[in-house]
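BUG: 3D viewer hangs when loading the predicted structure for this chain

Environment: internal workstation, default settings.
Expected: structure renders.
Actual: progress bar stalls at 90%.

Input used:
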Amino acid sequence: MKKFLYIIMSFIAGALLMLAATAFFNAREQKQAIVHTEHYLAEHYPELNYEILGVYTSTDFKHYGYFKHSVSVRDADKIEIFEVYYDKHMDRMEDSRAIREKEQFLADEITPKVEQYVKEQFGEVRYIDVYLYMETGKPTILVKFNEGDAAISQAEFDAFMVFVKEELALAHAHIIMDYWMGEVSFNEEF
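C-alpha cells produced before the viewer hung:
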C-alpha cells in the first residue's frame, strides 16, 4: 500500500512541477510579448497614447495571422482597442489596426475601380474579389469569368496589370483571372 501511495504522490508532484514550469515559461513569454509590442508601437505609432490591457494566449484572431501571444492595446485618444502580435509564419510583428486600415482601403478605393475596369473591358463576370492575403501582406485581385465567356488574351491581361500598377498605384499585388470550373488562365504576382 505504501508503494502505491508513493507512486501516486510521485505522479502528483511531477504534475505540479510541470504546471509550475509551464506557468513560469508562459509568464516569461508574455513579458517578452509586451516588450516586443512596446518596441513595435514606438516604431510604428510614435505619437500613440496607449495602455496595455493584457496578453492573451490564443489563436482566436486567425483572420489576422498566426501567433502564440497577442497583446491587447487601447488607444487612449481614439478609444480603440487593437491587437499587436508576432506572426510566426511571416516572421514579423503585425497589428490588427493596420490590417483593418489596409482592408478598408481595398474595399473603399481599389475594389470599385477594379469592378469598373473589368465591366468596361470584359463585361459581366461571375465575381470579383479584392482582399488582403495575410501570408504575403499583398492585395489579391481575383476575377472569375463564367465558364462560357470568351478567353481573355495575354495582351488584355497585361493591360489589366498596367492598370493595377499605374492607375491604382499598387506597388505589390497578386492577380488571378480564371474561369468558373476551369483552369487558371492568368496568375501573376508582383
